[in-house]
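Could you join me in thinking about how sequence relates to backbone shape in a protein? We need material for that, and I hope you will provide a protein of your own picking. Label the sequence line and the structure token line clearly, so we can match residues to local backbone shapes. Would you write everything just below, so we can both look at the same thing?
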Amino acid sequence: MNQSVWRKCYASYIDTPEVRRIIRQALAEDIGRYDITTKLLFSVDRKIYAVIIAGENGIICGINIAWLVFKLWDNSIRFIPQVREGARVRKGQTIARLSGRVSSILSGER
């Protein structure tokens, strides 16, 4: 799915000041200013490619929230959804592809 088309369809209704506040609060509680484990294990500037994979068969709920979490943590992360909100997925199916700094991706994943 084209990233810009996806953003127009899904991001606009979830990207509100209230949702941003809740996500920022959750990130601050879970990670604080930085993720110490990731910082100790990886070079801060190392770039990676990552995928989010379905652990079980199911229905996607919250892919737009995942996109916004990564955007708010580090706007340079590229998040490309591979399925739409509400889509049925199979165990092992790729849900999204990401690229960016390892520290940002791992921290946002938490």
